[in-house]
Amino acid sequence: MNLRFDRYGSIAFALIGAFFITQSQYISTSAYGSQVGPNLFPLGLGLLLVVLSLRLFWETFQSKYRSDSKAEAGLMYKRFFTILAATLLYVLLLEMIGYVIATALFLYATFLVMGSKSQLKSLVVSLAFSVGVYVVYVQLLKGTLPGLPAWLSV
Amino acid sequence: MSALHYLADGFLIAFQWQNLIYAFIGVLIGTAVGVLPGIGPMSGVALLMPVTASLTAGLPPEMAAASALILLSGVYYGAMYGGSTTSILLNTPGESSSVVTTLDGYQLARQGRAGAALSIAAIGSFVAGIVALIALVFLADPLSDMALQFGPAEYFSLMLLGLCAVSGLGGKSMTKALMMTVLGLLLATIGIDNVSGVARFTYDIPDLYQGLEFLTIAVGLFALGEVFKTILERDQSAQEIIKVGRILPSKQDLKESAAPIARGSLLGFFIGVLPGAGATLASFFSYILEKKWSKHPERFGKGEIAGVAAPESANNAASGGAMIPLLTLGIPGSGTTAILMGALLMYNVQPGPLLFSDHPQIAWGLIASMFIGNLMLLVLNMPLVKIFAKIIETPPHFLLPMIIAISVFGVYAVQISTFDLILLVLCGLAGYFLNKNDFPLAPLVLGLVLGPMIENNMRRALTTSNGDFTIFYTKPLSALFLVCALAWLVVPLVMKRRGKTVVINEEA
């Protein structure tokens, strides 16, 4: 367990709970024909979350709270953040440049980042996947995916 | 004999050609999911849920729901078969319920008996699957009849029991598990309130009025979370895979594993029916039990065939048993069944006692297809196990980006919104960090699925009692459920205080 994550995490969760408590004040307290309004459930749960978070916060100060700080060094942050950025970019550009282009670019880039040796193989796989999915889903199954952008469509 | 009559009708549904294909695809992908380390049954089912939704889009709603469920549950129990393969050949469990199988399975493989171990695991899984299904057939009707007597107060308490059970066994820290449950319930309140029509926590953001989509969150937390974890942590050490060798088990192996398979099936089934205790616990318990009952306990851990047969039967029986509370009561007892329930709800099918009377095609079609699916798995796993062993060698640099792409495709195909895609990535990040720090994810998903129902039932009960909370413990059945719920939370705490180690259920 990571002591620091748990301690700050418990504060974050307590804040989430507090947020739900305060915001549920603005929801009506009764529904037509019932004394129990839509505010009750989130209010109660918010309270519960705050109590549990405080309990976790308290637990992290107990002496027996284990903190096995495993070697964090082995984590491949660079690779991870590159792929995370690529995913975000992919998601944001999907509707703009269309499914086929966005997916092929994303896959090609991430294959290489993940350590694919062959450029050609990566290119073929990424194109096959994106075109394959698009053709099967949109042409055969009549689903909806963003097509090619307007300035490219024929 | 009405159960058998219904079952016959179910087989008519299951034998329709498209459902046979769906069952086959389901078990095939399930086996692959089980074989691949890093994707468990939960992420597998979550990942395929949107894909099946788009595959079945052309069918009429009832048929679509039946077909989708047939495929998804095929993935679920298929993963139980596949998980044994890597445990035996690589000493790496493909999913958490096969952890114990590594103890004896890998030793057997090193002695050159990998084929026998694999086939015994497949046979055990098959027998267990059939045992669980037969029990399901005969318990389904009486249980759903009983559940029809429940009022809102009873339902509320029963769902609370389900949540407490999953939280009580949900991870290393019960506080964290409870926090995750409450967070799941809270997230479920976002959107338009079902009872009064009031918008809650939406802040005029149109995407929030529908509420957070369960599918997006499940795919993000499990599938993307797992991928992020593997990207960050994998050390590229390729292990040598042991040759499979002769596949058919000898007569001696069969004789030695017959009794363990029978015991494992029964034990696994009963553990599976209990909420909160899933396939992982079942396999642990059956291994311990087998070791106790064995005439040669010293041989366990050195390559005893019973040490493979019992836990592999138990985890498959448990996955069958877990379908009982889901289908008859509408209460999922584990993360994977919660996702299956989310899939049912997506098709506007409410699992629970009325499922058997309102949608018999879905309920019985699913049960019948599980018979067929188990048979397919047996056939697939005996001769084709060598091919599946090859899946392990899929280069991760192709696999991981593709899982991200499939997640994005699946969520976009169903939701058609960039908002959900961003939510998906955020959930993936949250899933990774929470899971890494022992915040279990299964309770969160369960809370998210059960949230609207538990709230509806609570408010309906309170409306009938004019806001009087005593209704929950003056009704005898409801009080009983509440006591059980409390016991699930208190008993592990007391046992921990006494210094006993409590076997906890990692995601199953």
TrEMBL record, chain A:
Pfam families: TctB. InterPro entries: DUF1468. Keywords: Membrane, Transmembrane, Transmembrane helix. Residues 10-146 form the DUF1468 domain. It comes from the Bacteria. The keyword Transport does not apply. The chain crosses the membrane at residues 40-58, 79-111, 123-141. This is DUF1468 domain-containing protein. It comes from Brevibacillus parabrevis.
UniProtKB/TrEMBL annotation, chain B:
It holds the Pfam family TctA. Signal peptide: none annotated. Keywords: Membrane, Transmembrane, Transmembrane helix. The chain crosses the membrane at residues 20-39, 59-79, 116-140, 152-170, 177-199, 266-289, 326-349, 361-380, 400-433, 439-456, 477-495. It comes from the Bacteria. Residues 20-446 form the DUF112 domain. PANTHER family: TRICARBOXYLIC TRANSPORT PROTEIN. This is Membrane protein. It comes from Brevibacillus parabrevis.
